[in-house]
Amino acid sequence: MSDNIITITDFMDPNLDVYARLTENQLLNRANPKEGMFIAESPKVIERALDAGCEPVSLLMETKHVNGEARGIIERCQNIPVYTASFDLLTKLTGFALTRGTLCAMYRPKPRSVEEVCRDARRVAVLEDVVNPTNVGAIFRSAAALHMDAVLLTPACSNPLYRRAIRVSMGTVFQVPWAYFPKYNVGSDNTFSDASLHDKCDSSDQNCSDRNSSAYKYYIDVLHKLGFKTCAMALTDDSVSIDDPVLHSEERLAIVLGTEGDGLHEQTIDSCDYTVKIPMSHGVDSLNVAAASAVAFWELAK
User: Fold this and answer.
1) Given this model, what pLDDT does residue 211 score?
2) What angle do CA 143, 144, 145 make, to 5 degrees?
3) CB burial of residue 213 (10 Å; 0-12, 13-18, 19+)
4) How confident is the model at residue 214, as a pLDDT?
5) Sequence-distant (≥ 6) Cβ neighbours of residue 18 within 8 angstroms
6) Contact (CB, 8 A) for 53 and 76
7) Fewest Cβ atoms closer than 10 Å to its Cβ: which of 140, 148, 188, 300?
8) What are phi and psi of 48, to 5 degrees?
9) Looking at residue 52, what is its pLDDT?
10) What DSSP designation does 3 have?
11) How far is CA 61 from CA 42, 53, 100, 171, in A?
């Protein structure tokens, strides 16, 4: 095991670049997705990533953990570099003190399709433009704990394999199947492509706004074609209470949660089968999207 243990003494060592200096977008590597990586933090999270089949590239840890809490991880990750350093050097890495002393760079798994992750699903969560990785991670943790079968994300959502999202999720992003809806192609009807609406037109243009609305409707149409009834978590005049028996009677249900602040797009709400509210008190009109997700998953997955 000692042959692949490499001691780091300089914070600027290029072997630390993947952990200390590459941005999330650089790790994602859009130009060559097969080489895209993510960083898993703490032995528990790394174990969950390995259990999900993720391929490790290298490890970084405090020297004392080589024969301590990281020993099992090292044994599972045969023949990859294991970089070690003092705690003082490693604390220069953002957030290292939160990791319990072990980091692992891993290749990103092959993306899965919406159809694939929904094939045997009964309850799925749909995130519309949730851009805060902390919220994405918290929603995944709730989804794992509260019986969601899959999580689907619109293209504007923060990536579940961003470092903070993985950390907040406690590695449940590797346990709950998830997929992105492909970006809607404004140049054709009822098709998806890699072309973004925002790449094609100015959002102030009315035609572009109409097409933007069509994209939101299309995501819901896909869910309908896959056999799901859809419920938009939103406050409207015709919202039904989350404990309405009709919701529990649905064989397949997609729970649609909106972006921080603005909530769901109007077209999304109009396209869903139900609009659902969580009863509130003390004049509170809404919850943070991560908190709302936990309530919704608990009630609707019964």
Assistant:
1) 46
2) 95
3) middle
4) 84
5) 27, 37, 39, 57, 58, 105
6) no
7) 188
8) -65, -40
9) 96
10) G
11) 9, 21, 9, 18
Name the residue with tokens 């705690």: 87
pLDDT tens per residue across all 302 residues of the chain = 467 999 999 989 998 899 989 999 999 887 787 889 999 998 999 999 999 999 999 999 999 999 988 999 999 998 899 999 988 888 887 666 656 689 999 999 999 999 999 999 999 999 999 999 999 999 999 999 999 999 999 999 999 999 999 999 999 999 999 999 988 765 544 444 433 333 333 333 444 344 467 889 999 999 999 999 999 999 887 889 999 999 999 999 999 999 988 899 999 999 999 999 998 888 787 789 999 999 999 999 98
Cβ neighbours, 10 Å, residue 46:
27
Tell the burial category of 188 from Cβ atoms under 10 Å away from its Cβ (0-12, 13-18, 19+): exposed
Indicate the pTM of the whole model. Answer: 0.87
Domains in the chain, ordered, with CATH? 2-107 (3.30.1330.30), 114-300 (3.40.1280.10)
**Alpha-carbon gap, residue 237 to 152, rounded angstroms:** 27
Tokens of 184: 């809607």
Q: Tokens 């035609």 — which residue?
A: 207
Q: Please state, in angstroms and as integers, the Cα–Cα distance from residue 243 to each residue in 38, 231, 249, 255, following that order.
A: 39, 12, 11, 13
The helix or strand, by DSSP H or E, that contains position 276, with its residue range, turns out to be strand 274-277
Contact 127, 139 (CB under 8 A): yes
Q: Sign of the C-alpha dihedral, residues 35, 38, 40, 45?
A: negative
- Residue 183 has a pLDDT of 83
Residues in the chain: 302
DSSP state of 287: -
- The answer to whether the beta carbons of residues 60 and 16 sit under 8 Å apart is yes
Structure tokens at 48: 């969950």
Backbone angles phi, psi at 224, to 5 degrees: -60, -40
Q: How far apart are CA 239 and CA 279, in angstroms?
A: 10
